[in-house]
Design goal:
This protein has 520 residues and is an alpha/beta fold. Helix content is 17%, strand content 33%. The strands form 8 sheets. Strands 6, 8, 9, 11, 12, 14, 15, 21, 24, 27, 29, 31 and 35 form a 13-stranded parallel beta sheet that branches. The longest helix has 58 residues. The chain starts with a helix and ends in a 5-residue tail after the last strand.
Amino acid sequence: MVMTLVVVSVMLALAGTALTVKSSDKRAMQASQSRARSIYVAEAGVAEALGVLHQATLTGADVPSGFGSSDDRRACQGGSYWSELTDNGDNTYTVRSVGGVNGIDRALEVVVQVQQSNPLYDHSVFAGNVSDDRTYKMKFGGYGIEADEIQGDIYSGGDINVSGNANISGDLRASGKITGPRGEEGVFLPIPDIAGMNYESNHDVNVADLFASDQSWESDDAGGRAYQVPESNPAHIFRKNASDRARSSNGKDDYFLEDPYEPVRRDPDWDGSDAYPITLSGTAGDPGPDTSEAVFFVDGNLWIHNVPTFSFKFVHDPDERVRVTFVVRGNITFSDNVFYDNPDTDGIAFIAMQDDALPEETGNIYFGDPTGGTLEYMDGFMYAENDFLDVNLSASGSKKVTVHGNMTAGDQVRIERSYRNSHSKLTVEFDDRISSGELSLPSLPTANGSSSDAGYTVLSWREVSSAYENAPNHGGDNGGDYGGGADDGSGGDSSGDTGGSNGNGNGNGNGNGNGNGNGR
């Protein structure tokens, strides 16, 4: 009888132990499931924040600082989350989302870079072929030292033909056929929306209006006689209808980008080291309003063309910068070199738009000097609503031309540079500062239909401490959370790395983290 009671007691004890172990296993499993689910809930918070950020880049709406709070969470799939969205001031945003299930919180930190895809920014050479010319071919060629060299992506709304020793260091895309290197065919990309910008009303400086109200007919060392305005006038960097140069055939006024209040310099080495300076009003000590970040609207033709000099440079004081957009309702002709004072901080956009009264005779950008070969180098982001065309790019003219920036045409890039047995070399050094978000210029056009391409690039995605908001300098008591071990109980590299960078935490084999108070 006694033995029976002992056996029964042992069996009951074992059963109780089994139930305890089973209950403990169940709790551990539930905790593990809750921990795994909480990170998915945190991801839902990240997704919401990134979706709103994406929409804001399309519409220009304000970006919210976050959703919910630690005391007012949003319900999600049996759990809840709250998130923060921080503008880092450098075209990047940091999203931090805390998700929780059954009292277990986990947090994610995601850093993204906002991008607005637009042909004006993203390609070294772009031709939209809006005229739908089925015979259009964008051509690159040349041999030896005459071979074209294009750094950056290329797009043609027709065909692309690369021959000879031409070197393309970028992706090729075309709606038609690509001959030469491999590329992507059957691609159709939108063109910039000039009409939607309404530049006739949306600008800072109306050059024609300022001349009409304040001009005088003057002689100047810049050459001949021309209409000029006082130095304090924002339009003083132009001279109109100069007498020593030919007029455009379309009958519109001709504005020459040259500063009569600066000394004329020849730049004999053609490298910008002694260029004819141009100083915007309000910069470099010049009188008048600050136009260092302005949109200039020119109803006429714009010429970078002067008889005494080879080069122009936009100069300013060391603590200043020039970031301007020239919008020209007419044609733009580059006959002389154009340089930035500081290539790291300065930026200039040249936009040639059509005049509705002269649709075929305007909206073009010309390369070359009608009377000589004084064009070799141009700094700038260029857009022609119609075409890029050549003027005297030959043995007697410019034998080589370099663009540091990009070339974008609504219709075609039609610069014919092969002559006799030679070739005028075209080099395009793609300036990616606008595409990357490093540089912002005023009132650049967006692309028709490009909104679906706007978005962001994820720079980093990592788990951080869910108690982050209470941790001074991301350290202190929360170092252990930052250094938490993996779900499977291993310390692992991620535990040590995350803890080391944010709270000196170390993960152990039980999936727990230990951290000291050495916050950064």
